[in-house]
Amino acid sequence: MTETESTAVTHGVRVTVQSQYVADQSAPAMGRYVFAYRVRIANESSSEPVHLQTRHWIIRDQLGKEEQVRGPGVVGEFPRLERGQAFEYTSGAILETPRGEMRGSYQMKLPDGDIIDVTIAPFALAMPFTLN
Description:
Blueprint: E1 3-10, E2 13-21, E3 33-43, E4 50-61, E5 66-72, E6 80-81, E7 86-95, E8 99-109, E9 115-126
Antiparallel strand pairs: 1-2, 2-3, 3-7, 4-5, 4-6, 4-8, 8-9
């Protein structure tokens, strides 16, 4: 099993992502590579709560094919995180190649109504034995 991890902190919000290849749902001979990723969003700011509004993902396979996904919330939820709170969820992606990468951002609302972009650092999607 190949696992990769990325972390980014923006405006006091830490986003950590761990990804792994899901062999029992993949079919390499048919160009189907399934990956799961677990996201942890933690509000480490000094005082302000943040409320997740939307997500923006950029998914790229090893041939450079790129797909962008935008939408409301994450896994049907819109977590509101007070200082010191965290939210975790698991999702997945399907590629046509054994390697790829994901990155993106969450749009979070502050108590004053301002919207901030919180970075999701790039992380690898990789079938075992395909990373150096």
